[in-house]
Amino acid sequence: MGAKTVLGILGLGTVGTGVVDLLRDNPQFEIRRIAVRDIAKPREIDLSAFEITEDPFQLADDPEIDIIVEVAGGVDPAFEVIKRALTSGKNVVTANKELIAKHGPEIFDLANKHGVTVFFEAAVGGGIPLISTLQRGLQANRISRVAGIVNGTTNYILTRMEQDRKSFDEALREAQAAGFAETDPSDDIEGRDVVYKIAILSSLAFQSPVEVSKIFRQGITQIIDLDIILAAEFGYRIKMIGLAQPGVGDTLDVRAHPMLIPIHHPLASVEGVNNAIFISGSAVGEIMLSGPGAGKYPTASAVVGDIINIASALKLPDFARYFQPPISSQVKPVYPIDETRNAYYIRLETHDTPGVIGKLGLAFGQHGVSLHSVAQKGVTSSGTATIVLLTHTVREKQVQGALREISALPTVKQIGVLLRVLNH
Ligand code: HSE
Nearest 5°: phi and psi at 179? Predict the structure, then answer.
């Protein structure tokens, strides 16, 4: 048997513990050091066999370590530790979506310069082998679209709202009690998690990164149970989606927002904390990969898969060259959301007075927005009528123009929500 591959692990939360569990009895690996934020914190795992440190840079500086496994999350200190590890000739496995989304090109350049590589299968879709599918399995294709449910927390909340008629707040509390949503769930419900993940998928599908801060983001906090019921009546389910497709010219249309998904589309049937990614390719046609997008062992499965893949290639001369992600360092502009074309679901709260629907129709018509369906759903005791409209496909700035005019009408109380519809 050859020499063991020596590992340093940064982070010992849920995923880190799963990685240690999967590897501790594997004779091919030795976990040399583990860096944690707080050594004194009680843990469910026996750490007596490992050297534990609160200084993550000790991992990067240890000449015996072959692979640094970063499962701490966040940019600080992970970015600096990874840069130092790459510079000292270590390969890196990371589950860090924020880091790869924001600093991927710089990290890959540095790895390339030092003849090492960075694997990040666990950064998107937890246990689903998505990165390797885009990076290797689909290389024969020109990808025309990636549309994914890549956040388990929001999919769980929307599923509970639909199936159990729960309010958003109730469903969120249930997700927290079940351990799916964080105590501070804002990255999930405000869509930041999806922004990072779709930025990574887009960079692999279209071989160019985009500026993460330019990606349009809308969370799920404005969605109420009535939207879910009415969407179903129109033949759709509401899902939080990361979408990436070529824009006009050299741009990429990359966004993270809830969408109405036609009920017969494969993404519509993905329930609970599961993730799924629907990919359209020129040769393969349409494929969907689905499965657990988070959790201890599913995510550890992706991390350990990366570790094993690097370890088996380590012995080959100049191996890292063949494993660089096919992403250029040339950043492409994000296609502005105002220019995108979509069909829209719009919920408005209005006074229940004669002629309201007529005025709405006029405003949409004047901005060239053609309506597909209009429904009024009852009137509350305070005289508020809820009006829901579905438009035909139109440029977003036309809808925004109409809504600016509509929100100034004295009969309109507020625009409740605007959602986009996924077209085929
Ligand atoms: N918070 C993420 C989710 C899991 O709910 O899907 C980690 O990416």
Answer: 80, 15
